[in-house]
Amino acid sequence: MPRIDSTPDAKTRILDAAERLFMENGYAATSIRMITGAAGVPVALVNYHFGSKQGLMEAVYERALGSRGGSRVSYLDKLELDAAGKPIAVDVLVDAFLSSALRLTRKDTISGEVFKQLIGRAFYEPGPGTEAFFPAEYREAVDRYRQAFMRTLPHLSQDDVVWRMYFFVGIVAYAMAGKDVMRMTETYSLADAGNPEGIMARLRPFVVAGFLAPEGTLPTAVGT
Assuming Cys at both sites, which of 28, 39, 115, 210 could form a disulfide with 64, CB separation 3.0 to 4.6 Å? Predict the structure, then answer.
């Protein structure tokens, strides 16, 4: 039986290869054999260090976040502590989420770029395996905000709040990933294109208005 190289260097090579291949190909299209081939290690070493492909993806995600791992909800924790059980205003919750996203999309570090591209792929590459790619930690952070919005907007059903969160998080992920698939920023030479702070500032009033909008109903079809 071949000896399994379990040195820290081998583990780092796996993470480096996985990070690059996930960014280039997406989660679903990247196989364990592709990763181990690029890292120059046996396939068994992925299971040894990470347990599974999803475990490896989580490790890549955590490494990209580094010490900023808790930043997505730390400000929300403080807001809820200060509120002492009272609802937090919609604009304050939106600002907290956007501020957290901005901290994760800074272009001054490689990890920030990695996080942006990985989250962008999670949203815009549907297909088998993609649902497993989306980090559990990020889902938990989103759910914390869902609960906060539901306390603030008790007149809305959970479905309405979740749909608004879905639109909100999707738009933020779109902006974070820099995937202008419609090429609108290029076509119209928009100011702030490519500037995360400027994009988030323009997004804020749009999102706040969306959360404060009346409960949505589908229009009646003509002729019915």
Answer: 115
